[in-house]
Amino acid sequence: MASRMTRRGLLQVTLAGAVASVAGVARSEQACLDGKMNEGLATALNFTEQSPKADQKCGGCGLYDGGDAACGHCQIFSCNVPASGHCDSWSPKG
Ligand code: SF4
Fold it and tell me: Which of 39, 51, 63, 73 gets the highest tally of CB atoms within 10 A of its CB?
């Protein structure tokens, strides 16, 4: 007997995958930060793990020593930050 997935079933599977994907990204960002960030400095510089600016992410910041990696060292915070992050000290690579 052939199994047929209903539209509702397909939507549930798709949503479950999307939720798992977002959770996985959040976990990888947490693993990258590893609790070593100076929280006071992070607050003062409005650090966020997900940049609100598509063209200004840690991965593209001149102070990011991570190359193309998803996690790299930040010269300002002296710890690893996710390439997806952003803070007010963002500056273009030059
Ligand atoms: S200075 Fe800010 S934007 Fe640049 S890598 Fe560090 S945390 Fe990211």
Answer: 51
The residue written with tokens 């010269």 in the block is: 75
Write phi, then psi, for 92 (nearest 5 degrees). -70, 150
Tokens 């940049």 correspond to 51
Q: Give per-residue pLDDT as tens, 60-90.
A: 999 999 999 999 999 999 999 999 999 999 9
Q: What are phi and psi of 45, to 5 degrees?
A: -100, 10
In CATH, the number for domain 7-82 is 4.10.490
Query: CA torsion, points 81, 56, 68, 38, in degrees to nearest 10?
Result: -10
Q: pLDDT tens digit string along 10-35?
A: 446 554 555 444 455 566 666 898 88
Q: Which residue has the tokens 């047929």?
A: 4
Enter the DSSP assignment of 3. -
